[in-house]
Amino acid sequence: MRVLVVEDEQLLADAVATGLRREAMAVDVVYDGAAALERIGVNDYDVVVLDRDLPRVHGDDVCRRIVELGMPTRVLMLTASGDVSDRVEGLELGADDYLPKPFAFTELTARVRALGRRTTVPLPPVLERAGIKLDPNRREVFRDSKEIQLAPKEFAVLEVLMRSEGAVVSAEQLLEKAWDENTDPFTNVVRVTVMTLRRKLGEPPVIVTVPGSGYRI
């Protein structure tokens, strides 16, 4: 899942991004509304965590722009105000969910995951394919009832492949969904991660390389 965090309190923004990355999400961070508009014009995001009171361009205007573009991106709006009228106004602008500050990080993560599921074709909470079971919420992976410990990026790559339901996923698509925009697209990070993932998943191999196209399970 790829997420954009838009928050002018830099310490909070960076803390949220760090936490979401630990949950195997690809996260970009910006600190004002103008930068947010630039990012959504270039990258496809599953979820935007959007502070309402932003400098340069207000969060309301960013939300309106996402709606105007007809993007499948879901918006989780943040605000220091917990008034019902503010929540209603934010939702009427086109936000999909609303979370007042201060908030528990576990709740924010749960809401981001719930919104992320709404950007794709609905799938079971636990993904199963080729003897692999992956639980995105618990961040658990099993093969033939044996638990497998994966690093966050390995988990993210496996989740993208399993959500594709047998379709080929290119290296570029894996970069877009599992890494943030600071990753050099010309590195071999995808190939190395897939190799490590294959080894951890064991024999017989379940990740197939499709020459010139990408990978599939």
Beta-strand share of residues:
15-25%
- Mean of pLDDT: 89
**Fraction of residues in H or I helices:** 40-55%
Can you list the strand order of the major beta sheet?
Answer: 2-1-3-4-5
Radius of gyration equals 18 Å
SSE pattern, N- to C-terminal = EHEHEHEHEHEEEEHHHEE
| Overall number of strands | 11
Instruction: Specify the biggest β-sheet.
Output: 5 strands, parallel
Structural class: alpha/beta
Count of helical segments?
Answer: 8
Separation of termini?
Answer: 18 Å
Q: In terms of per-residue confidence, which ranges show pLDDT below 50 for 5 or more consecutive residues?
A: none
Principal-axis shape equals elongated
Keywords: DNA-binding, Phosphoprotein
Modified residues (4-aspartylphosphate): 51
Organism: Streptomyces xantholiticus
Protein name: Response regulator transcription factor
